[in-house]
């Protein structure tokens, strides 16, 4: 299954400055698809995240201050960690900006 | 770029919109009329889409970006090929409507020929309804707008807000209703951020930013309109103790601040008082704009407040700022102009098209991504599911100490803000204590008296090599915090028992380095609060800070 990730707000620094990634997920089976919770673990465990995992993932979810968007909507509208990924979903991890 | 070059933008969703960012002063009226006819033909050929706010916002973005690029060119003489490449008085914004209802072009009208005055047509909300005054509130007096922060975003939104509120002295019937534009900031104008804080000038370095901003806005409005907006300076640090009293005198608040605790405080105070909050933030290449806790859209649940979206503050290590993370100068100006634009329908119609949505600008993508946000959270300690007015506890804030709430120690007086409190105070040492111990008086200090090598151990600069290249202490060794190679391997064992003093730019990374070195077995490691920024303040005023 192919999923697009986009990373911004400075988070891309943890991803070797990659702002967008398009990768296949070896997650789920024919009967069950992967959830956002599995995706977040996969990003860390598969080495897609290059450094300081604690700045991305805490307690099975993203750390406070990261807004997750699923197809242009706040992931809370889509079930957060339980959202079941579909092919070609666009997932965005975006760090809050505080500057002005 | 030849003289007469202009930037022309056509936004299909906002019919008959034209932006000439660099209008040639020599261009005659006939040519202009011909261009108008061409433009009208172009537009008539296209589909007559109804006005839509996303397109209006896009138009604003393009306009703001054109202006921002013009500002940038002003800072880069090599790009500045001719006098027409910058936005200057006489540049033109024309919005031709089918039915003219509101004169939009706000400037010294005596300088603008009558035919060049712009008009804006029907409101996007009700067909054939006239635009309500952008000056007079339903109460009968002027609107009262408060902008928190006169920095980079303030430099984008304050001129736009002042222009909007001042209106057109030839047209306006609301002369008696003088709007108020309040500005909150406790900082002073500094050289290092003038690239983005375009309201301020080199000549006003050291002046309070609120006073500098008012001087700039007064000059911008000119003699005929400067009395049409009441500009109010609030030179203070916004705190839980003063926020409610201050906000109580305003109708809408724009968050142009630069740190997380202040952003939580502003949101909570707006919720407690039932005020809509236009929030703008920017770092590096990106900016965010939204309206928190705004008027509820007719067919949607109540929009969230800042706490609904970010119930738990981010770790201090991940908090971003323009000073520490850098920002492209035009980005905050762009985002600030967008925030001012978003405030307009909030004032004139009590509606907030951006409420419940977050507009994300990424220069490198480049696109504006507008995303739907979650509704107000029923268990939110501030707004309690968007209860209005006043949220969970009308007139009261849900927290007393916002720095503590965000896990940050209150910045010591006179120290450049150093938010992180990772290392206990006993493991930190101030320059004032450190230097006499080595026989050096803090100030005045001739650098020649700095010990060539510290008696035991030494000073380690843990900033990245790019920042060390700007300048470091004469005897400091470089050990970038991001690179721990060479500590375990090449170093003699006794290095781990020698005293080391760690410095970085402001005293955050040095704390992380203390922890990292302790984990590697170093037993006597301290860091200096305020780092090299503090060094420049107490020891060497010529040290390059950035």
The gross shape of chain A turns out to be globular
Separation of termini of chain A? 39 Å
Percentage of residues in strands of chain B? 5-15%
Largest interface comes to: A-B, 24 and 48 residues
Radius of gyration of chain B: 26 Å
Strand order of the largest sheet of chain B: 8-7-6-9-10-11-12-13
CATH topology of the largest domain in chain B: Rossmann fold
Provide the domain count of chain B.
Answer: 3
Largest sheet of chain B: 8 strands, mixed
Bulk shape of chain B: globular
| Main beta-sheet annotation of chain A | 5 strands, mixed
Percent of residues in helices of chain B comes to 25-40%
Derived from helix and strand composition plus strand pairing, the structural class of chain A reads: mainly beta
CATH superfamily descriptor of the largest domain in chain B: NAD(P)-binding Rossmann-like Domain
Indicate the CATH architecture of chain A. Roll
Task: Give the DSSP E fraction of chain A (strand runs of 2 or more residues).
Answer: 25-35%
How far the N terminus sits from the C terminus of chain B, by CA atoms, comes to 34 Å
Overall CATH class of chain A: Alpha Beta
How would you describe this protein?
- Chain A has a single domain, classed as Ubiquitin-like (UB roll).
- In chain A, strands 2-1-7-5-6 form a 5-stranded mixed sheet, with no helix packed on it. A two-stranded antiparallel sheet of chain A has the order 3-4.
- In chain A, a hairpin with a 2-residue loop joins β5 (66-70) and β6.
- Helix content of chain A is 10%, strand content 29%.
- Chain A has 1 helix and 7 strands, in the order ββαβββββ.
- In chain B, α6 links the parallel β9 and β10 (277-283).
- In chain B, the strands form 4 sheets. Chain B has an 8-stranded mixed sheet with strand order 8-7-6-9-10-11-12-13, with helices on both faces.
- In chain B, 28% of the residues lie in helices and 13% in strands.
- Chain B has helices at 29-45, 53-75, 152-166, 209-225, 243-247, 260-273, 306-309, 322-325, 330-349, 402-405, 431-437, 465-468, 509-519, 531-538, and strands at residues 8-9, 17-20, 92-95, 102-103, 119-120, 144-148, 180-184, 230-234, 252-255, 277-283, 286-292, 357-362, 367-372, 458-461, 477-478, 500-503, 525-527.
- Chain B has 14 helices and 17 strands.
- The model of chain B is unreliable at 1-29, 42-59, 65-110, 410-418, 441-456, 482-487 and 489-493 (pLDDT under 50).
- In chain B, α2 runs antiparallel to α9, α3 (152-166) runs parallel beside α4 (209-225) and α3 packs parallel to α9 (330-349).
- Chain B is globular and about 75 Å long.
- Chain B: Residues 22-50 are annotated as: Disordered.
- Chain B: Residues 459-544 form the Rhodanese domain.
- Chain B: This is Rhodanese domain-containing protein.
- Chain B: It comes from Caulochytrium protostelioides.
């Amino acid at each position: 299954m192919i999923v697009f990730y986009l990373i911004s707000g400075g988070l891309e620094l943890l991803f070797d400055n990659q702002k967008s990634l398009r990768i296949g997920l070896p997650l789920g089976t024919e009967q069950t698809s992967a959830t956002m919770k599995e995706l977040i673990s996969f990003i860390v465990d598969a080495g897609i995240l290059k450094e300081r995992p604690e700045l991305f993932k805490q307690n099975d979810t993203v750390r406070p201050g990261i807004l997750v968007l699923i197809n242009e909507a706040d992931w809370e509208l889509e079930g957060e960690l339980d959202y079941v990924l579909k092919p070609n979903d666009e997932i965005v991890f975006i760090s809050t900006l505080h500057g002005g | 770029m030849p003289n007469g070059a202009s930037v022309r933008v056509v936004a299909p969703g906002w019919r008959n919109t034209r932006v000439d960012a660099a209008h040639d002063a020599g261009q005659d009226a006939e040519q202009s009329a011909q261009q108008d006819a061409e433009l009208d033909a172009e537009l008539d050929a296209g589909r007559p889409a109804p006005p839509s706010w996303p397109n209006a916002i896009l138009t604003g973005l393009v306009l703001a970006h054109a202006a921002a690029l013009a500002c940038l060119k002003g800072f880069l003489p090599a790009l500045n090929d001719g006098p027409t490449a910058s936005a200057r008085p006489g540049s033109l914004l024309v919005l031709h409507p089918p039915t003219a209802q509101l004169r939009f072009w706000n400037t010294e009208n005596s300088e603008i020929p009558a035919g060049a005055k712009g008009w804006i047509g029907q409101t996007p909300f009700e067909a054939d309804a006239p635009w309500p005054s952008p000056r007079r509130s339903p109460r009968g007096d002027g609107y009262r707008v408060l902008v928190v922060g006169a920095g980079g975003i303030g430099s984008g939104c304050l001129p736009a807000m002042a222009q909007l509120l001042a209106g057109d002295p030839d047209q306006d019937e609301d002369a008696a209703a003088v709007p108020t534009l309040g500005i909150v900031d406790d900082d002073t104008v500094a050289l290092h951020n003038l690239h983005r804080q375009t309201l301020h000038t080199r000549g006003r370095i050291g002046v309070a930013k609120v006073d500098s901003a008012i001087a700039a806005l007064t000059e911008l409005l000119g003699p005929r309109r400067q009395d049409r907006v009441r500009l109010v300076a609030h030179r203070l640090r916004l705190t839980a103790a003063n926020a409610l009293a201050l906000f109580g005198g305003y109708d809408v608040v724009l968050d142009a601040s630069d740190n997380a605790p202040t952003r939580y405080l502003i949101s909570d105070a707006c919720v407690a008082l039932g005020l809509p909050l236009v929030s703008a933030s920017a770092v590096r290449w990106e900016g965010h704009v939204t309206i928190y806790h705004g008027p509820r859209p007719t067919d949607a649940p109540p929009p969230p407040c800042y706490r609904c979206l970010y119930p738990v503050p981010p770790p201090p290590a991940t908090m971003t700022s323009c000073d520490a993370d850098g920002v492209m100068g035009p980005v905050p100006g762009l985002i600030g102009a967008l925030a001012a634009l978003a405030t307009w329908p909030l004032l004139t119609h009590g509606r907030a098209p951006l409420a419940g949505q977050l507009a994300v600008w990424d220069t490198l993508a480049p696109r504006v991504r507008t995303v739907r946000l979650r509704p107000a959270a029923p268990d939110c300690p501030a707004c309690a599911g968007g209860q209005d007015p006043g949220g969970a506890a009308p007139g009261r804030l849900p927290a007393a100490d916002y720095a503590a709430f965000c896990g940050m120690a209150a910045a010591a007086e006179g120290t450049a803000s150093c938010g992180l409190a990772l290392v206990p105070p006993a493991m930190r040492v101030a320059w004032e204590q450190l230097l006499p111990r080595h026989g050096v008086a803090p100030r005045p200090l001739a650098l020649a008296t700095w010990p060539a090598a510290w008696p035991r151990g030494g000073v380690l600069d843990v900033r990245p090599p790019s920042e060390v290249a700007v300048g470091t202490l004469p005897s400091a060794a470089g050990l970038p915090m991001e690179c721990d190679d060479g500590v375990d391997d090449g170093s003699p064992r006794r290095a781990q028992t020698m005293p080391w003093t760690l410095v970085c730019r402001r005293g955050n990374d040095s704390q992380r380095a203390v922890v990292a070195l302790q984990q590697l077995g170093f037993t006597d490691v301290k860091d200096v609060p305020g780092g090299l920024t503090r060094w420049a303040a107490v020891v060497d005023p010529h040290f390059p800070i950035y």
